[in-house]
Write a structure and sequence with these properties.
The chain has about 110 residues and is an all-alpha fold. It is about 85% helix and about 0% strand. The chain has one domain.
Length: about 110
Amino acid sequence: MKHNTPLTEDNMEEVGQAVGLIIEFAARALHTEFGLDLEDLLRTFTRPACIEVVATFYLHGLHQGQSSAAAAAEASVELIYAWADTRLEAKAIVAQRHAADALLAGDGE
């Protein structure tokens, strides 16, 4: 698909297939490299918000004149970064709550 081609029904299917492969490759990379649960990753990455993010990055790369492969690689990296940032933020929130709970438990004694 050319970067300046308007989306049609045919190339929307191409984008959908590309997004599916991007998600699969990102999940498999995390699974292989870090031993993370593949099914959990795929479940997370196939949520509508993730699919939209991947499609947006992929189409942006194509619009910027990147090849399909380069746009897919960039979208995959962005997906992994977004996933990692979200996990780190969630862990920080949990740690803060545990610290607050421990502090409150200490005040009651």
